[in-house]
Amino acid sequence: MRYSGWKVIKEALTGHRGWGPAWRDATPQAQYDYVIIGGGGHGLATAYYLAKQFKQSRIAVVEKGWIGGGNVGRNTTIIRSNYLLDGNEPFYEFSLKLWEGLEQELNYNAMVSQRGILNLIHSDAQRDAFTRRGNAMILNGADAELLSTQQILDRYPFLNVNDARFPIKGGLAQHRGGTVRHDAVAWGYARGADQCGVDIIQNCEVTGFRIENGTVKGVETSRGFIGAKKVAACVAGSSSRLMEKAGMRLPIESHVLQAFVSEGLKPVLPGVITFGAGHFYCSQSDKGGLVFGGDIDGYNSYAQRGNLPVVEDVAEGGMAIFPMLGRARLLRMWGGIMDMSMDGSPIIDRTHVDGLYFNGGWCYGGFKATPASGYAYAHLLATDRPHETATAYRFDRFAKGRMIDEKGMGNQPNLH
Ligand SMILES: Cc1cc2nc3c(=O)[nH]c(=O)nc-3n(C[C@H](O)[C@H](O)[C@H](O)COP(=O)(O)OP(=O)(O)OC[C@H]3O[C@@H](n4cnc5c(N)ncnc54)[C@H](O)[C@@H]3O)c2cc1C
After folding, report:
1. Which domains does the chain have, with CATH numbers?
2. pTM for the predicted model, two decimal places
3. How confident is the model at residue 415 (pLDDT cuts 50, 70, 90)?
4. What lines the ligand 1 site, CB under 6 Å?
């Protein structure tokens, strides 16, 4: 079924009886060419591009819960490609270009909104760093603009640029950045993959790998054994727990990241803003809620809920930049498990087991990567070669000292 404005009008006039399920509820087959573990954004995007772009078939996505229940439906919806390093910037810019055509590609309204992202500058040293980053973005074909305080005030007149605790001295803007409705991305890719013949199997947890003579033969699941020629792990915050079953210890720690939504307000925030003197970022959803977040919880956890000290820290960051936030009531908050890698950058690579592949280490920035991650992972699965924008995302960079340390924090995931 194709979605269109005419279809909405027709259904509105005929009692909404013509809508079908967006994807089939598939039962597991005994054998597939590809089994993708994890029905988050990345797993579903991988299945979609593998079938659509790389013309592969006999593909299953195996999800332990429900589609959209993981980080893809828990993030703060921000997309951007404002990275500094060569290993990252071309990949994230590729992703942003895929976002720009995604709704037409999937025939699905994912509410892609290029409302712009603004990183505020509070010191001269920060201006130098952001200028360098803006130049790196432009050199890689992305857009970037250094804004003066007056230009910032023209767009965000409520900001206190002069006598706040952290005066604002300018900002780095990426006008093509913005927000996308997160769970619509999971649903859109699931529907697109299903239309290409992919089996999406929910409530099916992978409990182990069957590996014979160094080659993967399939996965043990809560619904029985599923055979596969290639198995692609893509489980974000559960990466270390899953890969442990294949005898792998990953350069990844899991930490909780929390998100917050205020009650609905009239339009007040036209774009995405990040505070440069603390960790706080905020946008306003189309329903009116201010959507914001900050640091990860500083210790390791697999619990999908966070703790109060970080809530306090995020609230303090918010109040420092938007004192008006103190008058809005908090409506909802939740947590998701982040797969924090040792240099803050992801891994899309083969493993030491033939036929077993790994995608993870997205830290708290993997939502914006969803289309490119799916595309690059599908490329690796179909051709056994990395996609040109993802050649640096290898396991052996940690052994060879070729870290992609965007923040210069070293191997301290809680600081990335
Ligand atoms: C609060 C918060 C805010 C964020 N904000 C942003 C942001 O603004 N911008 C941005 O770019 N990124 C953001 N992120 C990060 C982003 O959401 C993640 O990096 C990204 O969604 C991870 O990829 P995914 O969608 O595939 O993960 P998930 O949706 O978590 O998918 C993994 C899936 O694997 C399944 N799974 C796990 N173990 C098994 C198993 N054994 N068998 C079968 N299935 C299994 C899980 O149930 C899950 O559905 C944020 C994350 C959080 C939590």
Report:
1. 26-81+84-107+182-251+343-415 (3.50.50.60), 117-177+254-341 (3.30.9.10)
2. 0.97
3. confident
4. 37-43, 62-65, 69-72, 74-78, 205-206, 234-238, 242, 257-259, 293, 336, 362, 364-368
